Amino acid sequence: MDRSQKSDAVAQLNAVFNEVGVVVVTRNLGLSVAQSTDLRGKMREAGASYKVAKNRLAKLALKETTYEGLEEYLTGPTALAYSVDPVAAAKAAVDFAKTNDKLEIVGGSMGGQLLDADGVKALASMPSLDELRAKLVGLVNAPATKIAQVVNAPAAKLARVFGAYSTKEAA
């Protein structure tokens, strides 16, 4: 990697750090290519990304971002998982780490809040942004549904009474 490629890599990572909601630092303890490909696929499905970056370049890219505290986690064979959704990257990384002991969660950061490994696991247990939106829509929609049921109930009762009288007279 020559100097211009390194500066491009730092600029790309810096742009990523300025856009995302969460960054999770993982330690790669000998993942095979197939396992790494599987992890990247699961990250993509969750709406997150997974990137192996040189620690020195990642530390340069972290400067002047809200994730500057992550520098202490960037030692050894590390990789970065990140997403705009504050839960997606953490959830995908923790789920993969449960089934594969070659991936270790080192720590992370959500905005300016630095998280240790337990903090990332706690973040992963929270519902995702889409799940929260679905719950909110359900809560807003429930009263309207109940109002419609209450308004329609007398008419439905009258229709059943008329139906019963018509069947009684026909018999």
Total count of domains? 2
Helix vs. strand class: alpha+beta
Q: How large is the count of helical segments?
A: 6
Strand order of the largest sheet: 2-3-1-4-5
Task: Spell out the helices and strands N to C.
Answer: HEHEHEHEEHH
- Beta content: 15-25%
CATH superfamily of the largest domain: Ribosomal protein L10, N-terminal RNA-binding domain
Distance between the termini: 92 Å
What is the helical fraction, as a range of percent?
Answer: 55-70%
Give the overall average pLDDT.
86
Largest sheet descriptor: 5 strands, antiparallel
Give a short synopsis of this structure:
With 171 residues, this protein is an alpha+beta fold. It is 59% helix and 16% strand.
Topology (elements, then pairings):
Layout: H1 3-19, E1 22-28, H2 33-46, E2 49-51, H3 55-62, E3 78-83, H4 88-99, E4 103-110, E5 113-116, H5 117-124, H6 129-170
Antiparallel strand pairs: 1-3, 1-4, 2-3, 4-5
What does this structure look like?
This protein has helices at 3-19, 33-46, 55-62, 88-99, 117-124, 129-170, and strands spanning 22-28, 49-51, 78-83, 103-110, 113-116. By secondary structure, it is α+β, with helices and mostly antiparallel strands. It has two domains: 3-126, Ribosomal protein L10, N-terminal RNA-binding domain (Alpha-Beta Plaits), CATH 3.30.70.1730; 128-171. A hairpin with a 2-residue loop joins β4 (103-110) and β5 (113-116). The longest helix has 42 residues, at 129-170. Belongs to the universal ribosomal protein uL10 family.
